[in-house]
Amino acid sequence: MTNSLGERLWTGEEIVSGVKEDRSFLDQVLNFYCSKIKKEGPEINCFTFFSESALAQQQSVLRQRIEAKEDLPLAGLPVSVKDNIAVEGMPLTCASKILENYYPSYSATAVERLVKAGAIIIGKTNLDEFAMGSSSEYSYFGPVKNPRDKRKVSGGSSGGSAASVAGGFCPVALGSDTGGSVRQPASFCGVLGLKPSYGRVSRYGLTAFGSSLDQIGVFANNSRDLSLILNAVSGQDKKDSTSSALPPFSAEKHESLQPEKLKVGILQDFLKPASADVIESFAKAEEFFKNQGAQVQDVFFPELQYSVPAYYIIATAEASSNLSRYDGARYGFRSKGRLNSLGEMYKQSRSQGFGEEVTRRIILGAFVLSEGYSDKYYQKATKVRKLLLSGINKLFDKYDILLSPTTPTTAFDLGSHGQDPVSMYSSDVCTVLANLTGVPSLSVPCGVSEKTKMPVGLQIIANRNQEQKLMSVSSFFQQGFC
Amino acid sequence: MEVSSSLVEKIANRVQLQVSSELLSTYTKQLRKMLDYVDKIDELDEGSCNDFFSLVSCSAEREDAPVLYDGGVIVQQAPQRKGQAFQVPQVVD
Fold this sequence. Notes:
The complex is a heterodimer. Chain A is an alpha/beta fold. Chain A has a domain at 12-257 and 470-481: Amidase signature (AS) enzymes. In chain A, 39% of the residues lie in helices and 14% in strands. Chain A contains 15 helices and 13 strands. Chain A has helices at 12-21, 24-44, 52-67, 109-116, 159-166, 183-189, 223-233, 276-291, 307-322, 342-353, 356-369, 375-398, 421-425, 432-437, 467-481, and strands spanning 47-49, 78-82, 120-125, 145-146, 149-153, 172-176, 192-195, 216-220, 263-267, 295-299, 401-405, 441-448, 455-462. Chain B is mainly α. Chain B has a domain at 5-43. Helices cover 35% and strands 4% of the residues of chain B. Chain B contains 3 helices and 2 strands, in the order αααββ. Chain B has helices at residues 5-14, 21-38, 71-75; strands at 81-82, 85-86. Chain B has a two-stranded antiparallel ribbon. In chain B, β1 and β2 form a beta hairpin.
């Protein structure tokens, strides 16, 4: 298959079947990605960690497991992992100075499951510090560039993971999505990005940002590869009490899609803020579903206008609490200045260790939780969240899926949002709903803007735990539309 | 609402952050803008909706038992350590 840059690359599925048939294929695949990352990776800046020796070690272990005829459904599949997910033996920085030189003593459950299935962790990817941002510019390691146009952002916060797949450095990647951090960069880079239902994938080993919103997600160039990874990483985990009791997603169980029976709702409120070129591409996708016989109707959900403000209140409140653990005492960075007391150590280490956006969000989060203001902000935001959940449940009584553009614009220029955090927040307008309500959602490429020549993403939202339906629709769309 | 530099400084202190006077002025302006933005939720009449919210019921719980780690591995990550202990500024004179 060809990727978004028109390069002929292996799909994940081709790699797995190739490695099973011919063991020397593993060397060919890893040599290819290794030399591509070394040659082109630094310019895109999508990796925070890549090590040939770590790769060689994994390769050697995998060879022995193949010799031992272990069941390896992901044998030799190279996966890049966002650098806020723990991988034992690799640094975990969250793109922050405060986690400088930190090596976790365990792997995230999702990573453990990938490795058990035979995947190779090819490297750790760049992100907005602690996953707070929508452009991957707020990183201690510098911004990630979009492989389609290096003057543009890759999106965020999982911009490094999206760029690693779009740039052809690996076929699949893990990211995390708290308010759109998988789907928005997938849309900007022209790849697929899935945020599963809340709880479908264990969050154990994912650095906490907004715990009631965070979910590990997947990037790939096609629906089949997304399914393979979701199959491996989903399922209950005793280390995460919020993980779903449902059995793992099945990559083999295909829900046959009868388009004429598909009830599709178009979220009109998400078209209002979209630019003309995005609306144009979206209209073609909408037309595709109509032409296939689907029952397509416009839907209106006025409460959606409150979703982004509610999201920023809840996410920052949870972040201010979650990030209190970084104190310079037990791991990561400690200020090198003269520290006369514990208080000074905490304050100076945190002030020098966190970047500006993270500091801003911790302050806002502490404010909305403070006495006298928590009723006005935090309590009210949780009520808005409940109204959104009740609203989306009513929509799913009538419709099988909901559609909207993934983002109101295509990828913007690096540095164009400058010192205005609020303007950046509005780029999450179409994506936060799925996090606030816990439903699964996916971004699939739906063309290229005539104006900017950058990809446009179609967001497909399904009801809770209906990843199977989401994948069927995505696969049907990608095969028929592209 | 009125957001002053002293309020931002007070909040920053509570969350163990020290903000320079230059950044304090920037953060104050930005916090005002962020609060103006999130104030939009005030327009919504949520009626009798209560604020209890949960997306999941706790379905998976690990055994309530201590997990023992090799102390050396944990302490190795410390920015400053003394033998097998974390080293921090003196707490008691």
